[in-house]
């Protein structure tokens, strides 16, 4: 194969090397499903495993799409979007590929450094679930706690929250004050039941971690969190400058997740779901018994919004329902 300046992947097989050119678009998906750009028959690879994206400046990002067995670059697990370099070894499941990106003719990269107006804009529309988790009454807590204690507390919470979210197949997209935002990418054709349960198990684990962590600090009241989850299409990509990339998601799906978290205080519940999220959840078990419908007025939205909300206790009951149903006890 004559590659010239075309970036490509090399898949090494028993019958020889297979070349996968990165052409015809600016993003390519890898997985077992037929809807992927590169279909790899490896039972250790998820149906929609990973995605590569190319920015305007020619950088290639590798993004794990919440795969069960992980994506690795040179032996290092990809927990956040990672820029690939020529010659990097990528591992999906038990399949290894080499990334090749021959140097291109034209201005050197250094000529662009320092130009704040040079933005690598790359957006791809993806189906995803967005979770926003916020520490309740943090402003009051900040006024009452010693700064060193507060700094240690929030540092511990962020670190442990990040570990829980990574274990659930996502990553912390943003740390915002006393809140975190996380994304779960889904396939183009819908969401598997296991994926939606994974998200709600993460929320349950975050709540338990928060409760346990609060008991280790001299706090004036119990440490608590609230959560908003919304599912839908959003644009994902690099919205930062060339030297300061910021890979994130933007759009109404994301904005609504933040508003849903805020409305949990208004309706006095711990978790608020968008309608689409609830519809996927309703297919799993006894969601109707554990989540109640509310009509809320979200900030910035002219018309009322339907949400389905619950407490952490009811969420844990829902997860227990799922286990019992799976074991055919009920």
Write the layout of secondary structure elements.
Blueprint (H helix, E strand, L loop, with lengths): L7 E6 L2 E6 L5 E5 L6 E2 L10 E5 L5 E5 L6 E3 L2 E2 L4 E2 L5 E4 L2 E6 L21 E14 L2 H7 L2 H21 L3 E6 L2 E7 L7 H22 L10 E14 L8 E4 L1 H16 L3 E3 L1 H8 L4 H4 L1 E5 L8 E6 L1 H15 L4
Parallel strand pairs: 3-4, 15-17
Antiparallel strand pairs: 1-2, 1-11, 3-5, 5-6, 6-9, 7-8, 7-10, 10-11, 12-14, 12-15, 13-14, 15-16, 17-19, 18-19
Helix pairs in contact: 2-3, 3-7
Major sheet details: 8 strands, mixed
Structural class: alpha+beta
The rounded distance between the terminal residues' Cα atoms is 59 Å
User: If helices are DSSP runs of H or I spanning 4 or more residues, what is the number of helices?
Assistant: 7
Could you explain how this protein is built, in words?
The protein is an alpha+beta fold. The protein is built from seven helices and 19 strands. The chain has helices spanning 138-144, 147-167, 193-214, 252-267, 275-282, 287-290, 312-326; strands spanning 8-13, 16-21, 27-31, 38-39, 50-54, 60-64, 71-73, 76-77, 82-83, 89-92, 95-100, 122-135, 171-176, 179-185, 225-238, 247-250, 271-273, 292-296, 305-310. Helix 2 (147-167) runs antiparallel to helix 3 (193-214) and helix 3 (193-214) packs across helix 7 (312-326). The relative contact order is 0.12. Residues 106-122 have low confidence and may be disordered.
Task: Please summarize what this structure is.
The N and C termini lie far apart (59 Å). The strands form three sheets. Strands 12, 13, 14, 15, 16, 17, 18 and 19 form an eight-stranded mixed β-sheet that branches. A six-stranded antiparallel β-sheet has the order 2-1-11-10-7-8, with no helix packed on it. A hairpin with a 2-residue loop joins strand 10 (89-92) and strand 11.
């Amino acid at each position: 194969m004559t590659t010239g300046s075309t970036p490509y992947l090399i898949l090494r097989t028993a019958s020889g090397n297979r070349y996968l050119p990165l052409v015809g678009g600016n993003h390519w998906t890898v997985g077992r499903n037929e809807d992927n750009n590169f279909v790899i028959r490896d039972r250790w690879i998820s149906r929609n495993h990973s995605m590569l994206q190319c920015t305007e400046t020619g950088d290639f990002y590798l993004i794990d799409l919440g795969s069960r067995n992980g994506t690795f670059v040179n032996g290092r697990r990809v927990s956040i979007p990672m820029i690939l370099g020529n010659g990097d070894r990528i591992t999906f499941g038990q399949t290894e590929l080499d990334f090749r990106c021959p140097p291109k003719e034209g201005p050197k990269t250094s000529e662009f450094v320092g130009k704040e107006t040079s933005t690598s804009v790359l957006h791809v529309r993806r189906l995803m679930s967005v979770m926003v988790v916020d520490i309740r009454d943090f402003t009051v807590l900040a006024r009452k706690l010693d700064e060193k204690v507060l700094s240690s507390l929030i540092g511990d919470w962020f670190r442990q929250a990040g570990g829980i979210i990574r274990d659930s197949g996502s990553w912390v997209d943003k740390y915002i004050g006393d809140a975190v935002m996380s994304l779960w990418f889904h396939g183009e054709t819908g969401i598997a039941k296991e994926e939606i349960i994974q998200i709600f198990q993460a929320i349950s684990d975050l709540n338990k971690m928060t409760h346990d962590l609060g008991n280790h600090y001299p706090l004036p009241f119990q440490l608590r969190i609230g959560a908003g989850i919304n599912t839908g299409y959003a644009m994902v990509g690099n919205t930062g400058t060339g030297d300061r990339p910021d890979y994130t998601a933007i759009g109404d799906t994301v904005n609504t997740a933040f508003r849903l978290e805020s409305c949990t205080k208004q309706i006095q519940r711990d978790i608020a779901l968008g309608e689409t999220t609830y519809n996927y959840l309703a297919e799993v078990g006894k969601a109707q018994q554990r989540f109640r419908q509310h009509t809320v007025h979200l900030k910035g939205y002219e018309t009322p919004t339907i949400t389905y909300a619950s407490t952490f206790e009811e969420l844990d009951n829902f997860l227990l329902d799922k286990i019992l149903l799976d074991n055919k006890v009920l």
